[in-house]
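Quick note —
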Amino acid sequence: MSIEGQRVIVTGAGKGIGRQTAVHLASLGATVIAISRDPADLAALKKEIGCETVAVDLADAQATIAAVRRVLPAPLLVNCAGMTRLASFVDTPIEDFDLIMAVNVRAPMLVAQQVVRDLMKRGERGAIVNVSSIAADVGTPLHTAYCASKGALDAMTRVMAKELGPSGIRVNSVNPTITLTPMGELAWSDPARSKPMLERIPMGRFVQPQEVATVIAFLLDDAVSAMVHGTCIDVDGGFRAG
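Predicted structure written out below.
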């Protein structure tokens, strides 16, 4: 199962890594179903690549389930939607924690459940990529809820891989370091904060969204990654090399 000619759902497709992933997959011949909260972002993306679009707030569980059911079948899925709100550990509001977990963990589960149930009913294979972060394993000040959500997403990826592999559904995650998306630039625009992080990256720079998109495409494509399953692949310029 190659990417060309396949239907692929991309959540968070309105901005950042999700948008670049949608553009890249379309360039490889995939039929992209772009999911995002902002209709204006989706309209701009549709004009550029001719994708199907679905506007839905992934924090709304029932709306998310209904939206995904409307666009099935799709053997490929990229769970890319994510958010953060900066706060110290002691000042993290309950409402922010719950919202970040809903978007970053619960929504990927709900979307994948609908895709997987449909694939199993059809007896078809598939591939899922969850977009995580090195924050899953690296404590980052002011990112309590975000780090917790990405740690949970990696754990869920491993469970999905164990359970879904026998049905021919591969599941992996991609874990970038700071990526220069609008969210990344907001969180790391202060040189006082970004300089220490840059000093820990041997490649000497942060990640560009396209560099994550190409790894996602690799993980979706059985032609090159048929036995890559249950992994969390760092895209970090050597940050975690030591």
